[in-house]
Amino acid sequence: MLTLPFRDISLAISVAVCWAFNLVVIKWAIQSVSPLTLGCLRFIFVAFPLIFFLPRPKIPLGKLIIIGLLLGVAKFALLFKALELGLSIGMCALTLQTQVIFTAAFSYFMFGYQLSKREWCGIFLALCGVAMLAAQTDNAASLAGFALVLCSAVCWGLSNNISRTLKNVDILQLTVWMSLIPPLPYFLLSQLWEGPNTFFESLHAISLSEILSLGYIVIAATLFGLTGWTWLMRQHNPAKVSIYGLLIPVFSVFFGWLCFDENLSPISVAACSIVFSGLVINQWPKNAAPRDDLALAMQEVA
C-alpha cells in the first residue's frame, strides 16, 4: 500500500512544493546578493537563535564538521553558483535529485550495500538521462552550471552515507548545530571565488525583498520542511514517504515556467522523463523493512 492518511499526504505535498519553490526564491535573492553571501547568511540564521534552545546532538565532532562541510558548504555553494550561471530551475532540481543515484553508489562502495537489479536498472536509466541533459546544454555557462549541480549531488550523496552511520540523532538538532560550520568557509570562498569586496557589498545591498527571501529559505524551506518531513518519516514507513520527494522536480519545472518563463526543448523533456523514470524505479518502495529515517530525511532535504 502506498496510501497515507489524507492529512499526511497533504503535508508531504506541501513540503515538496515548499522545497521546489525554494529554488525560485534562491534565484530571486542572488540577483541582488552574491550566492556565497546568501549561503553564509542562511546558515547563520538557521543556527541562531535555535542553538541556544537545542542540545548538541550526541555525535563525534569530526562527523559534525564533515557533514557541515559536505552538506552545508559544498552542496549549497555549488547549487547557488549554478543558479547564478543561469541553469534553469527545472533542470537544476532534476539533476540535483540524482543524489539518489550517488547515495546508492556510495553505499555500495562504502558499506557493501547490495543493489538489486531494479536499482541498477534505475541508476542506468537516470545516468542515460543525465548524459542527454548534458548534451543539450547550449552554452558554456549552462554546461558549467550543470556540472556544478552534478557535483552538488555527489557531495549530497556522500553526506547521506555519512549520516547513515549516525544512530538515534534528532535531525533538527543536527541541522542547527551543523549550521555553525558553514559561515566561515562561505566567507572565505566568497573572498576567493567572488572577489574581496563582493561579500560586504552584498550585505550593503540587502533590502526588504532579500530579507523576505532569506526568511523563506530559513523558516519555510529549512525549519518547516525539515520538521514536517522528518515527522512523516517517523510516523510511516520511510520508503512510502520518500517517494513524494520525487514531486520536487515536477513542481520545480512548473515554478520555473511560471516565474522565469523557462521552457524545455522536446529532447530535454525526453531526457528529464528518462531521469525521472530512473529515479522512480530506484526509489519505489519495496516490501522490506524500512530504512533508517535519519538517512532518508537527509536524503530529501533541499
What labels would you give this structure?
mainly alpha
What is this entry, summarized?
The protein has helices at 6-29, 35-47, 61-84, 89-96, 99-111, 117-136, 140-163, 171-178, 183-194, 198-205, 208-235, 238-242, 247-260, 266-283, 293-300.
Topology of this protein?
Elements: H1 6-29, H2 35-47, H3 61-84, H4 89-96, H5 99-111, H6 117-136, H7 140-163, H8 171-178, H9 183-194, H10 198-205, H11 208-235, H12 238-242, H13 247-260, H14 266-283, H15 293-300
Task: Enumerate the spans where pLDDT stays under 50 for 5 or more consecutive residues.
Answer: none
Helix run count: 15
The helix-strand sequence is HHHHHHHHHHHHHHH
Structural class, judged by helices and strands? mainly alpha
Strand content: under 5%
Rg on CA atoms, Å = 18 Å
DSSP, total strands: 0
Biggest sheet layout: none
Domain count, please report it: 1
The overall pLDDT, averaged over residues, is: 87
Q: Tell me the overall shape.
A: globular
Q: Describe it for me?
A:
The protein is mostly helical and 302 residues long. The protein contains 15 helices and no strands. Helix 1 (6-29) crosses helix 13 (247-260). The model has no long low-confidence stretch (mean pLDDT 87).
